[in-house]
Amino acid sequence: MKKLQNTIYVKIFMGICKSCSQLLQTTNINKEEFKQLSQSFMQNAIIGKNILYASSPQELKRYMIFINSMKPYNLVIDGLNVAYAMRTKTEAGSLKPILDIVEEFHKKGQRVLVIGRIHMLWWSKKTMKLIQEKADTFFTKNISEDDPFLLHVTLMSGPQTYFISRDLMRNLKYKLIDPHLKNVFKTWQLSRQYLYKINKHKKTVELIEPISFEMKTQKSEEGWHIPFTCDTKLILPDSYSLPEKWICLKNKK
Ligand SMILES: [Zn+2]
Fold first, then answer.
1. Ligand 1 centroid from CA 63, angstroms
2. Which domains are seen in the chain, by residue range?
3. Residue 22 C-alpha to ligand 1 middle, in angstroms?
């Protein structure tokens, strides 16, 4: 078994096979699917069946006016998620990692939006001011959910927009009723969501690139790439992490 592992299994890095250097097929959501996903998300995750899942009618109105005049964005940050990741005993949440991300993308000429909750404004006023010089901000009431807004504005900004959060948003995916749209949602999410790690020692945030290629068996003219596992844990269809091992099979020339 050990020998097999060394000879057959390969790693995929940034969508490139380490054995044959082939680039895996990139994620593909067509225009119609993307449009359906955006519309369905608004209907099912934000408005619901006559119920405002996420918010109040007044807040929803304020949000719609805001995004209709301010979109599109290149990047939307889940402010509370990032701020809580670096909380300390003395601090409810830290705005510093948000500022670091904002500055990084602002340098590249990207339009950034930070979605958060109102109580974040009571943290460091100085850091918030620096964030607001380089990014737009939208804060929901403390009792409202902010994740539906985060995903909605990302979708409304177009298929090329990214978002940053460590939350896998499974509860929101399940609000989409159509099984096909649930799959489209996951494919979209994997290719658009930056996850991140917090380096507590250096007090920095390290972004993890979205997975922009199809995480399933791929066939091309040259052969096959098959995700694989040797341990007892199966690769579940609902997995959000990249299978570590792949098999690279090439056609004989
Ligand atoms: Zn290969």
1. 46
2. 2-11+22-26+217-250 (no CATH), 31-208 (3.40.50.11980)
3. 6
